[in-house]
Amino acid sequence: MDQKKVNFTVAMLFILLLIVVFIDRIVHFNGPAKAAVIYRPFNDGLMMSHVYREGMFLTWPWNKVYRFNTREQFIDKRLDIVVKNGVTVNVRINYRFAPIQDSLPIIFRKYGLRYDSVFVEPEIVYAIREVISSLNPEEIYTLKIDSITTSSFSLAKNRLKEGNIRVTDIYLLDIKLPPKVVNAIESKLQEEQLNQQYAFKQEVAKKDRDIKIIEAAAIKKACDTISSGLTPEYLQFKQIEAFLKLSESPNSKTIIMPQNAKTPFILNAN
User: Fold this and answer.
1) Distance between CA 240 and CA 233 in Å, rounded?
2) 3-state class of 252 per DSSP?
3) End of a domain among 40, 69, 98?
4) 3-state SS assignment for residue 238
5) Do 83 and 60 fall within a single domain?
6) SS3 45
7) Based on the structure, what is the number of domains in the chain?
8) In whole numbers, what is the pLDDT of the chain averaged over residues?
9) Are strands 73-82 and 88-99 parallel, antiparallel or unpaired?
10) 8 A C-beta contact, residue 90 and residue 79
């Protein structure tokens, strides 16, 4: 009986020793914004059906635990991109992304723990290069950064979604063209602006000329109309009317009618 107690005690001490030795491989804690996947070498390998989220969980000591940061991550970097005409532009970008937690086993199997550098960054860079490299330097100079950002974000979002990554923002903060290229573009734009101003002035001058031609035609027509109505008889009638009104005036006047003249004139005696 005593031997049984001794054997039991030894067995318990041995189990306790194993627990103490392997406690950190049996009991696991996920901190805030942490999640884990389990690799089971003696079962079916990577556990695809479950993700261990924040808090404590238990596993066999021979299983291996791989932890992920599930917080939204922020990356800021610069890229050199060759655009049309062989010009190299320097672009500063930043972006935010996070893994889809339920898909962590798939992400781990495809890309590993460094999925950000293996998958996310190349896809972001590809999307931005795909959009910017299709433009020529003048288009990059004149387009708003927002329109380039929107196109890049749409392309990157669709590609990362296929890899179970959620991208929340992509920003193009700065696009730098070589100084010589900028000077050439500004000179060209200035010349185009001057040409547009000259064309506008020509258009205004043409409209002014057309207006004056129309006004002159109207005046000529009016004069022709008036002239056609001013017959000698009509003018003589108007003279008689004027003389009659003058004769009614209290002031003394002398009306002289030259011989063979149709138009008399008046002398004021005062």
Assistant:
1) 11
2) coil
3) 69
4) helix
5) no
6) strand
7) 4
8) 79
9) antiparallel
10) yes
> Rounded CA gap, 93 and 107, in Å?
24
Determine the residue type at 23.
Answer: I
The whole-angstrom separation of Cα 28 and Cα 56 is: 6
Helix 145-162 / helix 121-132 crossing angle, nearest 10 deg: 140
Q: Which residue has the tokens 């910017």?
A: 132
Range of the domain at 192: 181-229
Structure confidence at residue 259 as a pLDDT band (50, 70, 90) = low
Examine the pLDDT at 231 and tell me if it is beyond 70.
Answer: no
Tell me the pLDDT tens digit for each residue of 131-166. Answer: 888 887 777 777 777 888 888 898 999 999 988 999
- C-alpha span between 263 and 245 (Å, rounded): 16
pLDDT, tens only, 54-97 = 999 888 888 999 999 999 999 999 988 888 777 888 889 999 99
Q: Is the same domain home to 82 and 173?
A: yes
Q: Which helix (H) or strand (E) holds 206?
A: helix 179-229
**φ, ψ for residue 198, nearest 5 deg:** -65, -45
